[in-house]
Amino acid sequence: MNQTNDKTAFLNAGKTLLRKEDRRLLTGHGRFTDDIHVVGELHACFVRSTYPHAKISALNTAEASAAPGVITIVTAEDLSEWTTTLRLAPPIEGLLPIEMTALPKDKVRFYGDLIACVIATDRYLAEDAAELVIVEYEPLEAVTGMFAAMEEDAPLVDEELGSNMISHQSFETKSIQKIMKAADRIVESTFATARQTHLPIETRGCIAEWDEGSQHLTMHIGNQAPHPFRSVLAGRLKLRESQVTIVVPDVGGGFGQKIALYREELIVAALARHLKRPVRWREDRMENMLASSHAREDFARTRAAVDSNGRIIGLMLELIEDFGAYCFYPANYLARVVAMILTGPYDIGEYAYDVKVVLTNKCGNGPMRAPMAITSWIMDGTIDNIARELELDPVQVRRLNMLADSAYPHTMATGETMEDINPGTALEKGLESIDYKNFRKRQLDDRTRGVYRGIGICSVVESTTYGSKFYKAAGIPGSGHECAWVKVDPSGEVRASAGVMSTGQGYETAFSQAVAEGLGVDPKDVAIKLGNTDVAPYGMGSRGARGATAGGGTVYLAAAAVREKALAIAAKLLGLNSADHLSIQEGRVCWFFDGKIQETELTLSDIARTAYLDPTSLPDGMEPGLEVTKAYDPPPMTYSNSCHFCEVVVEVNSGIVKIERYLVVENCGNVLSTQIVEGQQLGAISMGLSGSMFEHMIYDESGYNQTGLLSEYMMATASELPEIEIISVATPNRRTPIGLKGMAEGGVMGSIGAVSNAVSDALAPFSVVIDSHPISPLSLRQKLRKSH
Amino acid sequence: MKPSPFTYHDPHSLDEALALLNQYGEEARIIAGGQSLVAMMNLRLAQPDHLIDINNIPVLNGIECQDRLLQIGALTSHQDILQSELVRQSCPILTNAAAHIGHYAIRQRGTIGGSLSHADPAAEWPMIAILLDGEMEIAQLSGEKRTLGARDFIQSIYTTDLAPEEILTKISFPCLEENEGWAFKPFARRRGDYFIVAVAACLTLDQSGRIKRLRLCLGGMEATAIRLDEIEQGSIAHLPDENWIREVAKAACNEGNPVDDHNADVEYRRELVEILVTDALQDAFKGTQRG
Ligand SMILES: Cc1cc2nc3c(=O)[nH]c(=O)nc-3n(C[C@H](O)[C@H](O)[C@H](O)COP(=O)(O)OP(=O)(O)OC[C@H]3O[C@@H](n4cnc5c(N)ncnc54)[C@H](O)[C@@H]3O)c2cc1C
User: Which residue minimizes the CA distance to atom 37 of ligand 1?
Assistant: First the structure.
């Protein structure tokens, strides 16, 4: 490993390359699940609940079963024979264990919940038959809000739990209560994110093939974590893991929606095995929006004890998350991270949190790009409220409370240690770039002309690449390590693989650069093979901004180990007694001699040929072949940081918000591929802006989803999004390979906070504070009317 | 999201299409661009047994201008209207409205006749047709034709005067006068969305600079776009000054009987009308000063 992690030491990491995957993707030659056809395949279609909460009193499939093309219609009872019940009961304090069957047995819990599965010869006929399934419901009262869910006599989403509060965790430092009691001044703030959904352009879908001869299941599916998925799928089908292969083709986006084994995919696999025929399922857009997975819908309240200068002497967080009706993940998992890392770049030694997660009659939640998205808004929004209440400049309050860059490594009150970040530099650099000094004057001048301009600042400390130690400490089962192999074939061809899987992030490009860096070849000569569990090593998959550091980092380490072996062989072939002065550059062995790098005649291909075909020429005792498999467990947490600046003008008559400038100062360490990192930054910021200004999954009071179509669910398009300026102040991480850090989620965290704070700043003359999302023109008008 | 079964028919003449419609009546549906119908069929909100494709009937397509009457075949696509030089010169508000319909791919397929027959209260063509008192030409099996003004043709949300056996063949708009100022101001959250509220206006002044004719139309405030007849009448001979604009905007926002939904509450719709009317009249006035 390059110990200095000095960026200039790298030849391939950090270069801008055209994305390798784009040739096929942009010319229409990508291969997605729908491009795969299997002879004799059948189609699945699910019968879904038309009630938000109801007992199923009768289910009649007789007429539907007789419809043209129908092979079978299965219900909960059938599936309980073929599948096991999911039991999610990690030993986490304050978290209730849950159980889930493949299909709900006697009641449905949300509008769109599963009831039965129709298998027919095509999807059209399957849908025709699904309409003929007769379901008799006995409607139950639905609980549709987090506060209602916590009421004493609230209807229960899951009777087995005896409560809708599925998780409750709290923490406090020793003196926080005393400090809060003694404080002169307590500033209270609230924040609420809207319910959203991931909205990948490709919905979920899969093809399950059962080979009766070899008793083997092959599942083609767009999934972010193929190996963990295989483990769960095999377990629930009562198969040995060696009987299951997961093959992930090109995937049209995941954003966290394609990690877990959901019920639909389990059912499709079970039916393929039962029917001994291939079965495919493509979730349609409405199913995806109503019933795949939702996200966010957090409510947070902070209470900050401050002195008269705005210094925070104690902070308390209350966080409630509406998790919907089903848990495919431990319910505490998302909200808990918010609470753990809330204080981020600020020096807040006395801290307490109380985190509740509740079930409601809505689609179940899951992690979505930046599950902890609300964190930075809560923290920087709290700072802005302190500034407003004390009539101080918000930048001054930030500076006063922010840790100096020299204070890192720093351990937060929760025990989380941040290192190698520079929030102070990021803040100052951004202030200078947007000319904050003159901004306030501009703002005042504009106000006299009836133009309401505001600036929002949001510092982000992004938790990325969760290592095994973090999981262990948080009591979450699972590992944060990753595994990779690099092979040089006898021909000299280089291939590499890892357990992570791209859903569009461009891993083939970035990992080629990691291999190129580790091994000393040109990235274009590296083939990356991901997504097939029989080919890739068992890894933990893609989530939590771990692609580069865990995935790319492990690939790099494996490549470096291959280089080491190759150079040992080279030394022998060149008649040297050590490889100390040898290196490989663009596939050729070079010799550092007389202060100069000189090429030798030897290439990586020569070495590979020797390694495989002439083992007796290898150094004594060396194994033939040229391949290495490596596992790597990253630090407990690898922190990145950034500071976001958003300048808006709010038209107060119409409530329209115009983003006039968006700037972000980023420190995401050394990078593998500059272009891909930039794409992630722009994408994350866009996702955050869309989420905080446009998107809202709306349920009415009785639990019906009002936004289950793309025409109703507002997602921002390119036309609604601003130009984004990115400035880098990167410093490498001292422990990770190449000094890498994750970065794919921080943009969401920062933009949510920056735009919200900007609108509050613009509307300060009206005392309007943004405390909920989305920041729609209607919501602004409603707030402004009240303030007049 | 797959349609229920249907039989597809591909007539090559208007007579053939009318005969099919007559044969299948309520069980048949015309498909033009399919940009509204196919979505409804995929959601199974529409389940026609027979689909009669009118795309291969050339007489339904095309744009002409005769005697200061702009005539557009029902099958003409939004994009063709947007790109037509004839339209731009004779009735530029149509060009502007077309640009606001959905996105390129949708405009390529979607047709003016389809949009009018569909009668979405948040769509551009029904509103512009009401603003300009467009005339609908409707063909019947008997070989008869009838024509109907836009206000009689569009009856309510998704409801027109068309009988199941009829085909909308042509829409005529009177060309705008020289020096007629106009404006179309839709409000939507995103580019290309159906509007939440829209205002359209046409304004001509007499020699002395007073108002000769005002046409003012609101969309999104009722089940169809509405013309503000009283305001239009009352404006005649007025000076088109800021004062007048303010008064009209104030009066206009009390018109209509809008609904509350998650896009806009009643009050917000009225607030938008006031802003958009002001905007529209200022633009329209500027337009009268061009020549
Ligand atoms: C994503 C999206 C966004 C859109 N945004 C907008 C927008 O912003 N503004 C807007 O105005 N529209 C919008 N549309 C709708 C689009 O303009 C449609 O093209 C239009 O509403 C219907 O025209 P069509 O030719 O596609 O009709 P079809 O979908 O083929 O037909 C619609 C209805 O009209 C009937 N019909 C069609 N032609 C005739 C005829 N000649 N005689 C009798 N009946 C007929 C059909 O039987 C059917 O009932 C959007 C559509 C999509 C998919």
Answer: B114
Cβ contact B267–A778 (<8 Å): no
User: Could you report the per-residue pLDDT of A755-771, keeping only the tens digit for each?
Assistant: 999 999 999 999 999 99
- The rounded distance, in Å, linking the Cα atoms of A125 and B79 is 36
pLDDT > 90? residue B291: no
Q: Is the dihedral of CA A330, A334, A339, A344 positive or negative?
A: positive
Residues comprising chain B, all counted = 291
Predicted complex ipTM: 0.95
Same domain, A449 and A596: no
**Ligand 1 atom 46: the closest Cα is on which residue?**
B30
Helix (H) or strand (E) holding A682: helix A674-693
Task: Check whether A544 has a pLDDT greater than 90.
Answer: no
Q: Are residues A314 and A252 in the same domain?
A: no
A205 CB-near residues (< 8 Å, 6+ apart): A33, A34, A221, A222, A280, A281, A282, A283
| Helix (H/G/I), strand (E/B), else coil: B41 | helix
Residues of A with CB under 8 A from a CB of B: 123-124, 127-128, 131, 284-286, 653-655, 694, 696, 698, 706-707, 709, 711, 714, 716-717, 719-720, 776-778, 781-782, 785
In the structure, what pLDDT confidence band is assigned to residue A2 with cuts at 50, 70 and 90? very low
A678 pLDDT more than 70: yes
CATH 3.30.465.10 domain extents, chain B: 58-174
| Top CATH class, B7-53 | alpha beta
Do A444 and A519 sit in the same domain of this protein? no
Q: For the residues B154-177, what does the mean pLDDT come to? A: 97
Contact call for A285 and B190, based on CB within 8 A: no
Count of structural domains, chain A: 3
Which of A595, A519, A587 lies closest to A557 in space, CA to CA? A519
**Angle between helices B266-288 and A777-787 in degrees, nearest 10:** 100
Q: Is residue A223 part of a domain?
A: yes
- Helices A674-693 and A746-762, interaxial angle, to 10°? 40
Supply the pLDDT for residue A1. Answer: 40
Interacting residues of B189 by C-beta distance below 8 A, sequence separation 6+? A694, A714, A720, A776, A777, B196, B263
Average pLDDT, chain A: 96
Q: Looking at the predicted structure, is the pLDDT value of residue A691 above 60?
A: yes
pLDDT-derived band of residue B189, with 50, 70 and 90 as boundaries? very high
Reading the block at residue B152, the tokens are 């009689």
- Counting Cβ atoms within 10 Å, is residue B108 exposed (0-12), middle (13-18) or buried (19+)? middle
Nearest Cα residue to A273 out of A308, A232, A238, A223: A238
Strands A627-632 and A205-211: unpaired
Q: Is the domain B58-174 a CATH 3.30.465.10 member?
A: yes
Per DSSP, helices labelled H in B119-223 are 124-132, 150-153
Per-residue burial over A754-773, b if 16 or more Cβ lie within 10 Å, else e, is bbbbbbbbbbbebebbbbbb
pLDDT tens-digit profile of A475-526?
A: 777 899 999 999 999 999 999 999 999 999 999 999 999 999 999 999 999 9
Q: Give the pLDDT confidence score for residue A4 in this predicted structure.
A: 56
Are the CB atoms for A169 and A96 separated by under 8 Å? no
Please give the model's pTM, rounded to 2 decimal places: 0.97
Asked if A782 lies within 8 A of B265 by C-beta distance, the reply is yes
Q: Is the peptide bond before A774 cis (omega within 30 degrees of 0)?
A: yes
Model confidence pLDDT, tens digit, residues A323-380: 999 999 999 989 999 999 999 999 999 999 999 999 999 999 999 999 999 999 999 9
Residues A494 and A539 in one domain: yes
Q: Which of A696, A714, A781 sits opposite B268 (nearest CB)?
A: A781
Order of all β-strands in the sheet with B63-66: B63-66, B69-73, B167-174, B135-139, B145-149
Domain B181-287 carries which CATH code? Answer: 3.30.390.50
